[in-house]
Amino acid sequence: MVRRVVVRTGEDPDKVDVSDGDVGDAISLERFSATEIGAVGRAGSASFSAWQAGDGWQLEPGVGDVSFRIVRFLPIPADAAVDPTVGMHATQTVDLGSVLSGEVTLVLESGEEIALQSGDVFVLEGVPHAWRNTSGVPCIASIVMLSRLAGRVTDR
Predict the structure, then answer these.
(1) Farthest-apart Cα atoms in the chain, separation
(2) Helix (H), strand (E) counts: the chain
(3) Fewer CB within 10 A of the terminal residue: the chain, N end or C end?
(4) What is the pLDDT of residues 107-131, one digit of tens each?
(5) Nearest to 137 by CA among 100, 104, 106
(6) E strand residue ranges, the chain
(7) Rounded CA gap, 10 and 25, in Å?
């Protein structure tokens, strides 16, 4: 569970609304789980409803939308055979992420592997990739996914 605190202007502009509570996983697979923290739509409207497993969770945010997630990459057992193509995917998003704890390997379609650890940040712009955690402990990352309709990211 992830604790989510949302503070925003209420109907009375002199008051704020505070929502404070736990949010469960939106999706949970054998080696991956994700908690949907919230989304912002094209018109700037924010949604912080509590997505739960089975609510029609989708990997990518809607066209022109932004989503914010906490993801957990669970470790692969040391004796497990690993097919590097398992989990390979690409999205029509720009993903801005930060490893909060643990370690995970970003595997690119070329076979290149990039080790990421706590404190590292990453930007993925629609490239095929997979994630692999062989560290023995779970890895937790935060990821903001932006629809690519807004244009390309620069490295400035």
Answers:
(1) 59
(2) 0, 12
(3) C
(4) 999 999 999 999 999 999 989 999 9
(5) 104
(6) 2-9, 16-23, 27-28, 32-40, 46-47, 66-73, 93-101, 103-108, 113-117, 121-125, 129-132, 139-147
(7) 27
Structure tokens at 62: 């809607």
Tokens 């402990």 label which residue?
137
DSSP state of 94: E
Find out whether 100 and 141 touch, Cβ atoms under 8 Å. Answer: yes
Distance separating alpha carbons of residues 89 and 74, to the nearest angstrom: 18
- Tokens 């109907």 map to which residue? 11
In contact, 103 and 135? CB cutoff 8 Å: yes
User: Rg of the chain over CA atoms, in angstroms?
Assistant: 17
Contact (Cβ atoms closer than 8 angstroms) between residue 27 and residue 53: yes
CB 95 within 8 A of CB 88: no
Cα atoms in the 13 Å half-sphere on the side-chain side of 30: 6
What is the Cα–Cα distance from 105 to 4, expressed in whole angstroms? 27
Per-residue model confidence as pLDDT tens digits over 23-71: 777 777 778 888 877 777 655 566 655 444 445 666 777 777 788 899 9
For residue 80 the two structure tokens come to: 């497990």
Burial of 107 (0-12, 13-18, 19+ CB in 10 A): buried
3 state DSSP class of 130: strand
